[in-house]
Design goal:
- The chain has two helices and 24 strands.
Length: 291
């Protein structure tokens, strides 16, 4: 080996040593993903995306499609425990309370598509049998609600300042201004979900995932839909991490036996973080992603 080759090898070793000194070791290790809160037809679960630990946090019950309000540790979901209805489940106390009876809740086919929406700590918007409704969880008073001529088809999502609701109607996305009671069409697509910290929401069009910036009116394609089965018969629900930097969604492998829930995690630039397949009972949905 001549001197030139030795100098090249020594230079390479020196470069590697400097690289490890400059870059922290955690950059070479698997990142720690926060836990998610998962719902399927048999109960609520906590799932750790890093360790793959699945922990059941509720008693056995039958329910579908829910939304989690972190402020009061309560999940609103469509239940079929004691006759179909709208129930709330408190994670800390493990108490289940039926808020709305079955005659006021949409049919089972529609329940698979819709998720109740927390408007604030006490009021939930949900799809009734014949109309949209708002129910107060303290008084259980139900008030009919209308979006006008363009009624929601699948998904409702509240803006971070709680002044607007983004929703899809057929193949269009609308913004409903709560103060003015007016809806405006702003994009073509489905399944919108508002960021918890930015004036933007994610949605799907032609099996591609986009982020729409509400301030600039610009939509940006960030990724292609990664699920084995595209949701034709039930809604796709995106859940943002609390930081607003990551997205997670769950899809179902319709022909899988046993039933398989696919969980896909990406960052807001569309970079793939994790894909996990879980054997679950019934439709699965991610209610919350900490961190």
């Amino acid at each position: 080996m001549n001197i030139k080759h030795m100098m090249l090898i020594l230079g390479l070793i020196f470069f590697i040593v400097i690289l490890f000194m400059v870059i922290p070791m955690e950059a070479f290790t698997q990142p720690e993903y926060p836990e998610i809160l998962l719902l399927d037809g048999s109960g609520f679960y906590k799932y750790n995306l890093t360790s793959n630990d699945l922990q059941k946090i509720s008693l056995n019950f039958s329910g579908s499609r829910g939304s989690y309000l972190e402020d009061n540790n309560t999940i609103a979901y469509f239940c079929v425990n004691n006759g179909k209805g709208l129930c709330i489940y408190n994670i800390l106390t493990s108490e289940i309370e039926q808020i709305v009876r079955n005659e006021d809740v949409s049919t089972e086919e529609r329940v698979d598509r819709y998720i109740p929406l927390w408007l604030d700590e006490y009021n939930i918007m949900y799809f009734g049998e014949d109309s949209m409704n708002i129910v107060n969880i303290l008084t259980k008073e139900v008030i009919p609600f209308t979006f006008g001529t363009n009624s929601p088809t699948n998904v409702l999502s509240l803006s971070r300042d709680k002044t607007m609701i983004v929703y899809d109607s057929e193949d269009s996305i609308f913004i409903y201004n709560i103060e003015s009671s007016k809806s405006v069409r702003i994009a073509t697509g489905k399944f919108p979900s508002w960021s918890p910290i930015r004036d933007e929401f994610v949605f799907v069009r032609d099996k591609k995932i986009y982020i729409y910036n509400f301030e600039t009116g610009v939509e940006t394609e960030i990724a292609k839909f990664q699920g084995t089965t595209y949701p034709e018969n039930h809604a796709l629900h995106f859940t943002w991490a609390n930081s607003g930097d990551y997205l997670i969604y769950a899809t179902d492998q319709d022909n899988a036996d046993p039933y398989v829930c696919e969980i896909h995690a990406i960052d807001r630039n569309g970079n793939k973080l994790r894909r996990v397949n879980l054997d679950r009972y019934g439709f699965c949905s991610v209610l919350w992603w900490g961190g």
